[in-house]
Design a protein that fits this description.
Elements: H1 15-29, H2 34-45, H3 57-60
């Protein structure tokens, strides 16, 4: 199905605020690896347990052993 007008687009009601929060986090962190930062950001938002995403700011700031 092709979209020809704005009326055909259904936007989830939480999307605008979610994107606004995410955008603020990206601007504040200014990550080197935006994709890794994004994966870690949404992993945390979704309360998915596990280790930080490789390349995210969390793993880049960890002390080296």
């Amino acid at each position: 199905n092709r979209i020809f007008s704005a009326e055909q687009i259904s936007v989830h009601p939480e999307l605008p605020s979610m994107l606004k929060e995410y955008t603020k986090a990206v601007i504040k962190a200014n990550p080197k690896d935006l994709l890794a930062f994004s994966a870690e950001y949404f992993r945390k938002k979704a309360d998915i347990p596990g280790d930080p995403v490789p390349g995210s700011e969390e793993t880049l700031n960890e002390p080296k052993e």
